[in-house]
Specification:
This protein is an all-alpha fold and 423 residues long. The chain has one domain. Helix content is 72%, strand content 0%. It has 21 helices and no strands. It is found in: Cell membrane. It is a multi-pass membrane protein. This is Purine nucleoside transport protein.
């Protein structure tokens, strides 16, 4: 009971931290924030505690697992010695490595989601979910659309297809978009996550992240949008654009589009692989340098654990558990989620050590399920440089610390909401 109360206090503490960092406290729309918070609380309860909700997220997680197993058939055809003989696809390896289990299936999943976008299915879903979210929460239309789009398509991809809209927005609204971009997770990469962490918690984190991002952006950077400004200049929907005659360029032939998608997926696999290898090696190098001091306790993990400890404790853990969770949280923020998932995956899936607790499994999984880290800052700033004026880019760049605060607080709020119903 005591830890549950701490978890509840943590939710309000994270909102309080956002208030302290807000750049316009007088204009925070607390009614809108309260509505979104209530909706998020309902979704957390529905997906974590209600049988229908749990069945829904389990079905979604099983769907991704099914896709990944199909991807293994393609992997076995090309490199059978990378897939275990025990797999349904029937490889020849003794065990499955990180690249095979988590990354190579991206070569199927990314093109699949791109095809759904090409034929207009995903844009249609995004449009109506975004419209409903705007009406219910009172958020500006484009910001509501964007919060949903980035969870399916990724931050830089959505920014790229939103150039016309971004050109019409002032610098403060652009900053809101930047804050929200820190907390996205691409649907096409969820399959990789579900191979390393409990799928039901990975899927649950997606809608919770959308709502947490809206809450934190509304507090950290309140923006009053007039009815005249509250318009959507463009929604990335090739099917509707073609039907209405608004498309300025001819639609790319399908197989050319598919080839580009597969090439993009391959680049993504290489980028993630390179990042994981580099970050793990750099962390080991830093620990090696610390080791030269003779202080055995001086490690990167311990330093990060101390920094993140208060926040981990507020997620409903005793001090010992909180310090271990804090180490993983801090490592994720300075590297990326794959580094931590790769480290804890076996223990989480086997319910060993700290992760005997369902609360620990739910909290860490939902915290990790986002792109919130220092590397994402560079991606977002880089994307804006090619899309908006230098004045707007400079304004966003001045608020980089606020962007990092937003990413951390969104992950914490999502984890706190999920943890509230997992004990």
């Amino acid at each position: 009971m005591a830890l549950l109360l701490i978890n509840i206090v943590g939710i309000f503490a994270f909102i309080g931290v956002a208030y302290l960092f807000s750049n316009d406290r007088k204009n925070i729309q607390w009614k809108s924030v309260g509505i979104v918070l209530a909706i998020e609380l309902f979704f957390a309860w529905f997906f974590m505690s209600f049988s229908i909700g749990r069945d829904a997220v389990k079905a979604a997680a099983d769907g991704f697992a099914w896709l990944v197993n199909i991807a293994y058939q393609g992997i076995v055809f090309a490199i059978p010695n990378w897939v275990p003989a025990t797999s349904a696809a029937g490889g020849t390896a003794q065990t499955m490595n990180f690249i095979t289990s988590a990354l190579l299936p991206i070569l199927l999943v990314v093109p699949l989601f791109d095809i759904l976008t090409y034929i207009g299915v995903l844009p249609w879903i995004i449009k109506w979910i975004g419209r409903g979210l705007s009406i219910i929460t009172g958020q500006p239309k484009f910001e509501a659309f964007f919060s949903v789009e980035m969870m399916f398509l990724g931050n830089t991809e959505v920014l790229a297809v939103s150039k016309t809209q971004l050109d019409t927005m002032n610098s403060r609204r652009i900053l809101t978009i930047a804050l929200m971009s820190m907390s996205c997770v691409t649907a096409s990469i969820l399959g990789a996550y579900t191979q390393m962490m409990p799928g039901e918690y990975v899927i649950t984190a997606v809608p919770l992240n959308i709502l947490s991002a809206i809450i934190m952006a509304a507090i950290l950077n309140p923006v009053v949008v007039s009815p005249e400004e509250d318009t959507v200049a463009t929604i990335h929907n090739p099917a509707e654009e073609a039907a209405s005659g608004e498309m300025k360029a001819q639609k790319e032939p399908f197989f050319s589009f598919l080839g580009d998608s597969i090439l993009g997926a391959g680049k993504l696999v290489l980028i993630i692989t390179a990042n994981v290898i580099a970050f793990v090696a750099l962390a080991a190098l830093i620990n090696g340098l610390f080791g030269l001091t003779g202080f055995e306790w001086l490690t990167l993990q311990n330093i990060l654990g101390v920094i993140m400890f208060p926040f981990a404790w507020l997620l409903g853990f005793n001090p010992n558990q909180a310090f271990e969770i804090a180490q993983y949280m801090g490592t994720k923020l300075i590297t990326n989620e794959f580094v931590v998932m790769g480290e804890v995956s076996k223990s989480v899936l086997a319910h060993q050590g700290l992760f005997v607790s369902e609360h620990a499994r739910a909290v860490l999984t939902t915290f990790l399920t986002s792109f919130a880290n220092f590397g994402t800052l560079g991606m977002i700033i880089g994307a804006f440089k090619g899309l908006v004026s230098k004045e707007k880019v400079d304004y966003v760049s001045k608020h980089v610390p606020l962007m990092m605060v937003s990413g951390i607080l969104v992950s914490l709020l999502t984890a706190a909401m999920a943890g509230l119903f997992a004990w």
